[in-house]
Amino acid sequence: xxxxxxxxxxxxxxxxxxxxxxxxxxxxxxxxxxxxxxxxxxxxxxxxxxxxxxxxxxxxxxxxxxxxxxxxxxxxxxxxxxxxxxxxxxxxxxxxxxxxxxxxxxxxxxxxxxxxxxxxxxxxxxxxxxxxxxxxxxxxxxxxxxxxxxxxxxxxxxxxxxxxxxxxxxxxxxxxxxxxxxxxxxxxxxxxxxxxxxxxxxxxxxxxxxxxxxxxxxxxxxxxxxxxxxxxxxx
Length: 235
Prior knowledge:
By secondary structure, the protein is α+β, with helices and mostly antiparallel strands. It has two domains: 13-58 and 135-233, CATH 2.40.50.100; 61-132. Helices cover 34% and strands 35% of the residues. The protein has four helices and eleven strands; from the N terminus they run H-E-E-E-E-H-H-E-E-E-H-E-E-E-E. The protein has helices spanning 2-11, 61-91, 99-132, 176-181; strands spanning 18-22, 24-32, 37-41, 49-58, 134-145, 152-153, 158-174, 186-189, 196-200, 212-218, 227-233. Strands 2, 3, 4, 5, 6, 7, 9 and 10 form an eight-stranded antiparallel β-sheet that branches.
């Protein structure tokens, strides 16, 4: 109960138009596995770092072999198509060739082309599968790893929590009076500007039943984790 009251007090205004809020990362989300397999690459030392690399790799050795085989098959099939196309083109307009022979060549050509399209679809599926087994981060902060190297994961398994530190977010719960003037108000965070309203609730919050949630964001260097005073001044 004491913990709940501390949270509630932090959410309420200090005085008219003034609020306290903790600077959170601009965005945070959990990455889950899209495919199954055993983790063959993962470094626990990557936690709590901003990364631009493949962080988790799920075994795709057999997929690589199958992909190489299918690509070779497609190449051979395309060579067959080229030969069959040449043969068909050489007879399709000849009066000396009967309709049955021309239709036979055309049918064989169409059959090869259908096989090629089916093989292209299989190759695309394999490429997508392999891509989903290599989970990379691009200038993102790795907050938490939920798995270890050698573990087998299934689709939906939580892999890691990732944060965007390229900005910050302040979540406020404002009273009705401040919500009513929010669109035209001047908003400052401990005297600094640049914070923008990303979203503002039009109905009261389920927990803080007399207040409205407002998210402020800023794409700039911000003091993550710091509790700051937000002032809403009607214009």
